Amino acid sequence: MSENGLPQAIDVTGSTPEEAIEKGLSQLGLTRNDVIVEIIEEGRGGLAGIGAREAVVRLIPLRAPHPAPAESEEDTAEEAEVAHEVLADLLERMRVEATIYVYRAEPASPEEIAPWVLDIQGPDLGILIGRRGETLSALQYLTRLITSRRLERRANIVVDVEGYKSRREVSLRRLAQQMAAEARRRGRTVTLEPMPPNERRIIHIALRDDETVTTESVGEGEHRRVTIIPLRRSEH
Amino acid sequence: MTREETPMKELVEYIAKALVDDPSQVEVTQIEGATSVILELRVAPEDMGRVIGRGGRVANAMRTLLRVVAAKQGKRVTLEIV
After folding, report:
1. How far A96 CA sits from the closest chain B CA (Å)?
2. Nearest residue of A to residue B16 by CA position?
3. Which fold has domain A73-162?
4. pLDDT per residue over A95-154, tens digit each?
5. CATH superfamily ID and name for B26-81
6. Which of A119, A187, A224, B25 holds its CA 20 to 30 A away from the CA of A125?
7. pLDDT surpassing 60 at residue A2
């Protein structure tokens, strides 16, 4: 670490500048937006390796590496505890009377670590969901951010209101299957309503293993929507 | 004397203090109008980025939560980071 708490700049080589950048980023544990890239040597392929010169890039970190997610069961229990406290503090200041129930989610896929879900329950909590779940997203974002900051590592938690997200997930999965069937039957691309990122992700995952269709998000910002594209029979 | 009821100010203070490096310099001023509330958040210059967030994400999340509280009082709310 240098004086300002940031990792030192590093020089990396690769057959192309892009490859060198990728290599350097994974060494630093950073993403493209976290560094300044200086291309020191463009490099060139040469003919069949003759006269080839490696590309050299210098990566100057703008931030410390992303904290690694928690790994042990004990760590995640601590996450749930701190997140519970943070969420209760936020709700108290919003003058919302509610009870927070904590449970372990089911992992979206076997390779994923299941997050803790903090489900807020109480009378009249529609205001905590907001239009297209906007308020709930803000609440989850800030709870995660403050919890991560306290624990100095990324907190893998989900905030829900009266099971809104889990119910929504069930209906989105059903919708995905129906629309995939529709796309197959008509042999045409089906476009869904605009959805926030977390909901689009549910659709993509639901159809990930379906070999008869492929999914793609199109449009920008609030208008971004999932399209379900049938694959021709020869591609099955 | 009863404690003044200022949930929005408390909410911003809590979030800002939890995110900055120097909580002692977090200051929130509440300016109350008949139909609107203005909250001014001041933090140490080095901490501005933490309360604004990449692309204003933190500031916008705070605004979203503030709207819920303001709506209950029938008011509009503005959060300014100064």
Report:
1. 9
2. A146
3. GMP Synthetase; Chain A, domain 3 (3.30.300)
4. 999 999 999 887 666 666 788 999 999 987 889 999 888 999 999 999 999 999 999 998
5. K homology (KH) domain (3.30.300.20)
6. A224
7. no
Determine the distance in angstroms separating the CA of B68 from the nearest CA of chain A, rounded to an integer: 7
**Integer Cα distance of B31 and B37 in angstroms:** 6
Report chain B residues whose CB lies below 8 A from the CB of A127.
68, 71-72
d(CA B42, CA B9): 12
According to the model, what pLDDT value does residue A43 have?
82
Q: Enumerate the residues of chain A whose CB falls inside 8 A of the CB of residue B64.
A: 130, 134-135, 137-138
Residue B7 and residue A149: Cβ atoms within 8 Å? no
Contact A167, A117 (CB under 8 A): no
Take residue A70 and report the two structure tokens written for it: 């928690």
pLDDT digits (tens, 9 = 90+) for A176-186: 999 999 999 99
Q: Is A128 on the interface with B (CB under 8 A)?
A: yes
CB nearest to B68's CB, from A127, A142, A146: A127
Concatenated DSSP letters of B37-55? EEEEEE--GGGHHHHH-GG
pLDDT tens digit sequence for B34-72: 899 999 999 999 999 999 999 999 999 999 999 999 999
Residue length of chain A: 236
- Domains of chain B, by residue range, sit at 26-81
Chain A residues close to B15, C-beta within 8 Å: 90, 142, 146
Fold that domain A10-67+173-191+203-235 belongs to in CATH:
Ribosomal Protein S8; Chain: A, domain 1 (3.30.1370)
Strands B36-42 and B76-81 come out as: parallel
Test mutation, A82, A97, A140, A142, chain B, max B CBs within 10 A: A142
pLDDT in tens, A212-222: 999 999 999 88
CA–CA dist A92, A118 (Å, integer) = 15
Residues of A in Cβ contact (< 8 Å) with B11:
90, 93-94
| Token pair listed for A227 | 């399209």
